[in-house]
Design brief:
about 150 residues, Nuclear Transport Factor 2, Chain: A, five-stranded antiparallel β-sheet
């Protein structure tokens, strides 16, 4: 996979495909340099070994239920820590994912921060809501991040 994406949404979808395919090298390459995993695993081989073991244990991203940019960008941006690294641009994305952990499927919403550095978007950090058990076909319940409502009926 090519690590170049033209928007946070495009990078998010490419990372989702990489999670599904188990492409740990792509996942590692698309972290921003300030991401905790990138700092913890400066060597992609170490990340591959540890994250690959997690994939084998049945932890997987199964499905994207929703992905969109928040309408109130400035208010949503205040919910995440300010990165201490230079960036050409910042992007936010609210997304709902289905995770499978062993036999159990659950979904949760995340608010993700993406940074563009040296012309490339990278995933920096996120905050998430508590998980809920996932039943296919069940409508998403709205979630509130710091007073901002996402998902569900408006």
């Amino acid at each position: 996979m090519n690590a170049t994406a033209d928007s946070p949404s495009a990078l998010f979808r490419a990372r989702f495909a990489a999670f599904k395919a188990g492409d740990t090298d792509f996942i590692w390459r698309t972290y921003s340099r300030g991401n905790a995993f990138y700092r913890e695993y400066p060597n992609p081989a170490d990340f591959r070994a540890d994250y690959g073991a997690m994939l084998v244990k049945g932890v997987a991203v199964e499905e994207i239920l929703e992905a969109r940019e928040p309408a109130r960008f400035a208010a949503a941006r205040a919910l995440l820590p300010d990165p201490d690294e230079p960036a050409e641009a910042r992007g936010l994305l609210v997304y709902a994912l289905v995770y499978q952990v062993g036999w159990h499927k659950e979904y949760h919403h995340e608010l993700g921060l993406f940074l563009r550095q040296a012309g490339h978007w990278g995933f920096h950090s996120s905050v998430s809501t508590p998980t809920r058990r996932y039943r296919p076909g069940t409508p998403l319940k709205p979630v509130v991040f710091g007073g901002l409502r996402f998902g569900g009926a408006a």
